[in-house]
Amino acid sequence: MFSSILIPIAILIVFRVFKALQRRSKLPPGPLGLPVFGNLFQLPTSRPWLAFDNWAKQYGPIVYLNIAGQNTIVLNSHKTAADLLERRATIYSDRPDFIVLSIITGGMHWGFSRLDELWKRQRRGAHETLSSQTAKDYFTYQEIESVIMLSQILADSEGFVDHFSRASTSLSLSIVYGWPPLLDSHHPTITGIDRFNADLLEAAAPGSFWVEFEFFKWMRHLPRWMCTWKRNAEESFVRNTTMFERLASDVQKELDAGNDTPSVVGELLQDTEKPGIIEIAWNAASIYSAGAETTAGQLAWFIQAMIFYPETQRIAQDEIDRVVGPYRMPTFADYEHLPYIRATVKEILRWRGVSPIGLPHRLNQDDFYEGYFIPKDTVCFVNNWSLHRDKELYGDDAEHFNPGRFLDIDGNVDSLIAGSKDEGHFSYGFGKRICVGRHVANNSLFIHIASLLWAFNIAAEVGRDGRLNFPDSLQCKEGLIVRPAPFRCKINARRMDIAAIVAQAKADRGIQPGRTERSI
Ligand code: HEM
Known about the structure:
By secondary structure, the chain is an alpha+beta fold. The chain is about 50% helix and about 10% strand. Strands 1-2-6-3 form a 4-stranded mixed sheet. Bound molecules: protoporphyrin IX containing FE (HEM). Pathway: Secondary metabolite biosynthesis. It is found in: Membrane.
């Protein structure tokens, strides 16, 4: 009697174990790891995309890693990334648990949150306020930022990186809260928001996120008196919730006073299914933090491209001179007539994207792909660095910066890749999680790049020995947003009257310190 129960149970267990082993043996290939720790110690803390690239050459387009028990795959080809993250987006769009981040944000930053109801609501709201059509409402903000950026570079060309950051921060504040342009990025409220952003980017950066994942999941249950990191993160959440709630409430006051300057928060507050103020506050914080530094970092890479590829700079300037001429700055009215500049935007995002391994996705059920078994909860990275160097897609000169690759025989912009949402590169990510701010980002890059090339010649600095000093374009400032390591260059006005034209544009737009800056 007893054995008649035990035998089927034993068969079932053996069958289950056999199945599990069979599935394990079908995991995608990857480097051999250590017992328990798996590949943890093989992961470089710096420039992981280069290690991923080497593994891709050795193991193929889909590489399996075991990070201390956490199943992880790295997708190294356009086909695998599109097959899984686009075509199977319903199961590949969750995010891993970011332990510290979820405390700092109370789980309400939807760029990092799980694929839950809150994410769905926040993303739906953002789709409306950042769609390709609504993004046009922000053209004026973006043109104004270009004018201010040029005037600041004319006064202090060495500080170009700071001027890009100011423009990015100021635009994000205008788009999210309807603020007038901000001329001084050292304002106390900006310092507060910047502090939040720095905490966030640090907690989400590769290197910190290797230890963030499931391996240390138990750490979240430690009592707060034992861990400073937990207390700091909790305090950060309280401080930031108060700050973002106040910023959102200020918009409500503006609306009540009859001021309906377009802004994301303004739209959300007027939504008929308006969520609570805390949810709106964190939706705004998510969009602000995702948009503030990305464009600035991308512009810094653009300056490097111009140093390395003077011939490309000349082609772009010829187009601007033909279409815009010397007497006024470029505007969005020139957009359709500047295909080479639009192609330059794509190419800079491809050549040196600020996000070489994107943000991790997580698979929410077991899956089989091309004979491989991919277990539920696997974390998926896309190695954009490798995808962007694929010679089959981009040609033999894929290593080089060449906007011309995005132009067809008639000179029209061609995205090259079916299924990349017409971008032609993968810097905005994939599937349900694709960057919701990409239309705004493309427009900002377009107007800033056109304006910079209209106004300046950008070149390598001449060293004391008379030789050109080129930066090392593989060196970078790492973090969630990857920027070039600090470098110097020459940015000179192309003509004598540039400063006067920019000053006139500033006056025409009513940009004056003190008058346009809101006292917060
Ligand atoms: C050069 C500029 C930018 C780049 C390269 C960039 C890149 C990215 C990437 C790689 C992701 C993750 C995609 C994925 O998981 O597959 C993302 C998500 C996101 N981006 Fe951007 N981004 C940029 C600018 C912006 C701007 C200007 C905004 C807002 C105005 C923005 C808002 C967001 C948001 C809210 C998410 C989270 C989406 C989600 O998880 O559902 N981004 N971005």
